[in-house]
């Protein structure tokens, strides 16, 4: 059965750009109102808010979009986001903990936190943190887990059904040395989603995770260390292609039992938990990314890793 999102309400973190912005746009065209959470909005995201203004006098009963500035690493701000969503909408039916980092140098395993022996690092992570943490793991794994907990708490205490769609990656069942925190976070996210599989049949709470290959988003374009890895021969998914796969996870009631939903240029597929086929190489790799591995190995051999 295909479900409808018309008249529903969604909360999407990381909705100010890229995949999550494309998904917000798709939901709105289907009649679903959205609260967009991010640190800032790109111009195209602001244009979407202007197109779907919030408030009964302005929207005339049509779907609307609301922005709430949120740092997802702050549990206090996640709580405030949820309160804002319930203030704007009667309830929240769909939750997408979509904010993510592609292991930028300021939170990278290969750029350890600043210390006396490592004063010139690009890292913003705190070597003396109590507790210590990596921002990449906070954004990609801890924040989605906490937001899922808040959503499930709301749905179960109010005896409501709901839908959680996470943004994973083919990195969640592969590996590469360049960005090990990113790969670890996506492996963890996939494991978390699979662990909640039983909620669909027991409580009507559907939990899934889209797993695209490389996608043409600001995570590549705005990172000077990664944009150079892409050239005219690189095959990347467009955000709209991933948004369509995410929409399928929302409307297809046969999915959502811990589904890991791979998305590449040719097709989508449910990734089996055991003994699955490898992903398509067409959109699952970036040549320049793997060429950078050689440079990393050479640097480690020459200079070591200063921690």
Automatic annotation (TrEMBL):
Alphabetic keyword roster: Oxidoreductase
Region feature Disordered, mapped onto this chain: 112-134
Family matches, as InterPro entries: NAD(P)-bd_dom_sf, SDR_fam
Pfam families cross-referenced by the UniProt entry: adh_short
Keyword Oxidoreductase tagged: yes
Family: Belongs to the short-chain dehydrogenases/reductases (SDR) family.
GO molecular function ontology, one term from the record: oxidoreductase activity, acting on the CH-OH group of donors, NAD or NADP as acceptor
Top-level taxon in the UniProt lineage: Eukaryota
Gene3D superfamilies per UniProt: NAD(P)-binding Rossmann-like Domain
Presence of keyword Oxidoreductase: yes
GO CC annotations, alphabetized: cytoplasm
Protein name: 15-hydroxyprostaglandin dehydrogenase [NAD(+)]-like protein
């Amino acid at each position: 059965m295909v479900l409808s999102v018309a008249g529903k309400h969604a909360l999407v973190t990381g909705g100010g750009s890229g995949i999550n912005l494309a998904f917000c746009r798709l939901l709105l065209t289907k009649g679903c109102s959205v609260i967009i959470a991010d640190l800032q909005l790109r111009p195209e995201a602001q244009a979407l808010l202007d197109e779907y203004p919030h408030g009964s006098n302005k929207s005339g009963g049509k779907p609307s979009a609301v922005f709430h500035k949120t740092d997802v690493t702050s549990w206090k701000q996640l709580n405030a986001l949820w309160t804002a969503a319930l203030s704007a909408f009667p309830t929240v039916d769909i939750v997408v903990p979509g904010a993510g980092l592609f292991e930028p140098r300021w939170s990278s395993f290969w750029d350890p936190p600043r210390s006396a022996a490592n004063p010139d690092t690009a890292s913003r992570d705190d070597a003396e943190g109590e507790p210590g943490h990596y921002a990449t793991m906070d954004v990609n794994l801890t924040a989605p887990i906490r937001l899922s907990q808040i959503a499930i708490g709301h749905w179960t205490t109010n005896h409501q059904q709901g839908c959680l769609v996470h943004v994973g990656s083919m990195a969640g069942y592969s590996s590469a040395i360049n960005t090990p925190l990113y790969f670890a976070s996506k492996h963890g996210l996939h494991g978390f989603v699979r662990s909640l599989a039983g909620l669909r049949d027991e409580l009507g709470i559907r939990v899934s995770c889209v797993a695209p290959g490389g996608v043409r988003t600001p995570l590549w374009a705005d990172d000077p260390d990664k944009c150079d890895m892409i050239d005219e021969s690189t095959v990347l998914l467009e955000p709209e292609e991933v948004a369509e796969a995410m929409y399928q996870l929302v409307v297809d009631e046969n999915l959502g039992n811990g589904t890991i939903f791979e998305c590449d240029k040719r097709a989508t597929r449910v990734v089996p938990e055991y003994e699955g086929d490898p992903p398509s190489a067409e959109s699952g790799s970036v040549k320049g990314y793997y060429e950078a591995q050689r440079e990393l190995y050479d640097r480690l051999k020459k200079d070591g890793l200063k921690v």
